[in-house]
Design a protein that fits this description.
61% strand, mainly beta, four-stranded antiparallel beta sheet, elongated, 64 residues
């Protein structure tokens, strides 16, 4: 597989999507994404990565 559909999104703890960092084809391999939290309230957010039929979820805390 040389490329697959990837979706990387950020939601608040209530499940409201606040950012989509990537949504499209991506070559297989390591990648980086930058999450600019300016404008978001301090708190916990959920980062969700969907790729190749797999899902990974992680939490990130925004502090001021």
């Amino acid at each position: 597989v040389s490329a697959q559909h990837v979706r990387l999104s950020v939601s608040d703890v209530l499940g409201r999507e606040v950012a989509v960092l990537h949504n499209g084809e991506q070559r297989v391999g390591p990648h980086e994404a930058r999450f600019e939290a300016r404008g978001l309230a301090p708190g916990v957010y959920v980062v969700r990565l969907e790729a190749g039929g797999s899902v990974a979820v992680s939490r990130v805390t925004v502090a001021r």
